[in-house]
């Protein structure tokens, strides 16, 4: 582990830096489901008795910020490298979720063009009764510019 | 292998899921942008995307991930997706045909769980998105 990365890990990992309330709109997730090609009416039909969001829908829920306010500026351009979702319980129309974000992982890979820093931001989502319903991870990669 | 499965004992190691051709049309992406978000020019306007350096408008990553979920549900309507991890390797271009393929890489009968590797490729057979999913199926 590079020293600068270890310093960032020690300072920022698992420290909550954002909390938002998210109102879940069934029309929005039904349209998401249809656009993505879902056929099951429990995802597309608001009148279905088990109407719920497709598990991947939580990746569309965003907080106010993706990194801690005091996170250091890295020397490179950030790109969306991937998303991961962990489903724990159904998300339904008119629910109000609380999204709590923290940095879940920081790691590097080194290729021919230099070092790439990966930042994994996790939003934990809770229902009004405190049930943990999902985790949504955003993986950002920063390809560092050569210094000097 | 049937086009659809319902229970874990119907799943075979190494089997390929039925391929799925997602709707990458500009009309569909604009609809996604209207109702879900990601309605910016790079997603909904080829000329605007080219001005940003892309070959054309691109599919939002969250939509590509949704395609993967839909593919799994089309094959296994009774499945509960527990985890789905997606790596965006290169842009998925709007109005370009793409194919999603999947293969079963592990079966945990005791946990009623199946692991699947999923890939979105373009017409040149270049990988654009890779995913791994863990699903749970009824016994």
Short description, anyone?
The complex is a heterodimer of chains A (148) and B (139). With 148 residues, chain A is of the alpha+beta class.
Give a verbal description of the structure.
The complex is a heterodimer of chains A (148) and B (139). By secondary structure, chain A is an alpha+beta fold. Chain A has a single domain, classed as Roll (Thiol Ester Dehydrase, Chain A), CATH 3.10.129. Chain A contains three helices and five strands; from the N terminus they run H-E-H-H-E-E-E-E. A five-stranded antiparallel sheet of chain A has the order 1-3-4-5-2. The longest helix of chain A has 11 residues. Chain A starts with a helix and ends with a strand. Chain B has four helices and four strands. Chain B has a domain of 92 residues: Thiol Ester Dehydrase, Chain A (Roll), CATH 3.10.129.10. The mean pLDDT of chain B is 96. Chain B has 139 residues and is of the alpha+beta class. A four-stranded antiparallel sheet of chain B has the order 1-4-3-2, covered by helices on one side. The two termini of chain B are 18 Å apart. Strand 2 of chain A pairs antiparallel with strand 1 of chain B, so a sheet runs across the interface.
CATH fold naming of the domain at 8-22 and 60-136 in chain B? Thiol Ester Dehydrase, Chain A
Oligomeric composition of the shown chains:
heterodimer
> Strand-and-helix sequence of chain A, N→C?
HEHHEEEE
Q: Compute the average pLDDT of chain A.
A: 95
| Overall CATH class of chain A | Alpha Beta
Q: What can be said about the biggest beta sheet of chain A?
A: 5 strands, antiparallel
Domains of chain A, number: 1
Strand content of chain B: 25-35%
Rg calc of chain A: 18 Å
Structural class of chain B: alpha+beta
Most strands sheet of chain B: 4 strands, antiparallel
Using the alpha-carbon principal axes, give the shape of chain A.
Answer: elongated
């Amino acid at each position: 582990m590079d020293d600068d990365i270890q310093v960032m890990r020690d300072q920022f990992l698992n420290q909550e830096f954002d909390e938002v309330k998210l109102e879940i709109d069934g029309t929005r997730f039904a349209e998401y489901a249809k656009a993505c090609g879902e056929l099951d009416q429990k995802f597309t039909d608001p009148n279905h008795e088990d109407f719920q969001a497709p598990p991947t829908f939580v990746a569309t829920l965003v907080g106010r910020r993706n990194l801690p306010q005091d996170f250091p500026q890295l020397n490179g351009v950030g790109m969306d490298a991937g998303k991961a979702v962990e489903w724990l319980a159904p998300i339904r129309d008119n629910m109000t979720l609380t999204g709590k974000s923290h940095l879940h992982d920081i790691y590097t890979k080194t290729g021919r063009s230099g070092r790439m820093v990966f930042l994994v931001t996790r939003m934990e989502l809770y229902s009004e009764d405190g049930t943990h319903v999902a985790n949504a991870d955003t993986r950002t990669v920063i390809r560092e510019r050569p210094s000097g | 292998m049937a086009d659809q499965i319902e229970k874990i004992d119907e799943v075979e190691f190494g089997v390929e899921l039925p391929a799925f051709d997602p709707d990458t049309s500009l009309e569909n992406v604009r609809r996604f942008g209207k109702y879900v978000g990601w309605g910016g020019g790079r997603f909904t306007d080829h000329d605007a995307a080219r001005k940003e350096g892309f070959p054309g408008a691109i599919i939002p990553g969250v939509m590509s991930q949704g395609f993967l979920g839909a593919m799994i549900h089309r094959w296994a309507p009774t499945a509960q997706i527990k985890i789905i991890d997606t790596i965006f390797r290169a842009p998925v271009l709007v109005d370009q045909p793409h194919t999603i393929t999947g293969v079963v890489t592990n079966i945990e009968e005791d946990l009623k769980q199946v692991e699947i590797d999923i890939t979105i490729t373009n017409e040149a057979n270049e990988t654009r998105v890779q995913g791994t999913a863990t699903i749970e199926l009824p016994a």
